[in-house]
Amino acid sequence: MTRLSVNVNKIAVLRNSRGGTEPSVTRAAITCIAAGAHGITVHPRPDLRHIHPHDVFDLAALCRDRVEFNIEGNPFAPARGAYPGLLELVRAARPDQVTLVPDGDGQLTSDHGFKLPEDIASLQSLVAALRLHCGRVSVFIDAGAVALAPLARIGVARVEIYTGPYAIAHAAGAADAALSACARSAAAARAAGLAVNAGHDLDLANLPALRAAMPDLAEVSIGHALIADAIYAGLAPTVRAYLDVLRSG
User: Fold this and answer.
1) Do 137 and 130 form a contact (C-beta atoms < 8 A)?
2) Is 221:160 a contact under the CB 8 Å cutoff?
3) Which residues lie closer than 8 Å to 84 by C-beta, 6 or more apart?
4) What does the alpha-carbon distance between residue 88 and residue 80 come to, in Å, rounded to a whole number?
5) C-alpha torsion angle, residues 173, 174, 178, 182 (rounded to 10)
6) Would you place residue 249 in the very low, low, confident or very high pLDDT band (cuts 50, 70, 90)?
7) Taking the CB of residue 57, how many other CB atoms lie within 10 A of it?
8) CA distances (Å), 138 to each of 28, 100, 152, 200, in order?
9) pLDDT confidence band for 119 (50 / 70 / 90)
């Protein structure tokens, strides 16, 4: 079975927009775990636009010995203000998985993978350092990338295929080429001895075809669409609960 790791970044975005502690990132994670999620994912950024370092530590403690905890981030982004850098976060939190993503402050969200094999040399020492403090290292790659054996040689255990282009193509009704690119990368990863994760813009509509095209898919990380679906699914009962309180008064 492909495992589901829920990305709770969007809960932190909402909390930060108002200040304070609500909605609680930790409570959201507890709810996801109780519903059967196999893991929790966060992607802290140096500008602290959503997940803060204390969230990382709180979630690490919550997930330990219960479900997998996955920290995503740019290993090349330096420490800044309250952000200590990815390696320091990993050293303190000791997650089950670290997913390396080449994002920058100017990106609204992750939108590309590492260049391979060009980035191997710069990743090698970072992967070695991270492996001392986490269960495994995964690297974010573009769909269609096939030069993956060097990742295995430097100690990477998994790749995460960037599925944003596939999601766009699926919504447009022309997903075959994008889906084939994902499948090619998955096959190349398996040939190199790497397990395969996938993530970005996956939802209830496009996930079945991706899952069918990659039967050995180990894990998907889903946040934005899942949280949006939860809002729609949960608004009606929540409104009714408030109305019940008002009626009882």
Assistant:
1) yes
2) yes
3) 53, 92
4) 12
5) 50
6) low
7) 13
8) 25, 6, 10, 15
9) very high
Q: Among all residues, which ones are annotated catalytic?
A: 43, 72, 200
Distances (CA, A) of 155 to 26, 127, 148, 184, 220: 31, 7, 12, 21, 21
| Spatial separation of the C-alpha atoms in residues 195 and 141, rounded to whole Å | 13
Burial class for 155, CB neighbours closer than 10 Å (0-12, 13-18, 19+)? middle
- The separation between CA 217 and the C-alpha centre of its own chain, rounded to angstroms, equals 15
Q: Please say whether the beta carbons of 173 and 209 come within 8 A.
A: no
User: What's the rounded Cα separation, in Å, for the pair 187 and 180?
Assistant: 10
One-letter identity of residue 195 = A
Let me know how long the chain is: 249
Structural tokens at position 45: 């950024």
| Architecture of the domain delimited by 3-248 | Alpha-Beta Barrel (3.20)
Q: How many angstroms separate the Cα of 210 from the Cα of each of 30, 105, 188, 196, 235?
A: 27, 29, 16, 12, 29
Whole-model pTM: value is 0.94
Give yes or no for a contact between 25 and 59, defined as CB atoms under 8 angstroms apart: yes
- At a CB cut-off of 8 Å and minimum separation 6, what does 49 contact? 13, 16
Cα–Cα distance, 109 to 140 (Å, whole number): 13
Query: pLDDT band for position 108 (50/70/90)?
Result: low
Q: Return the bridge partners of 136, or none.
A: 97
For CA atoms 49, 52, 58, 59, the dihedral sign is positive
What are the sequence ranges of the domains in the chain? 3-248
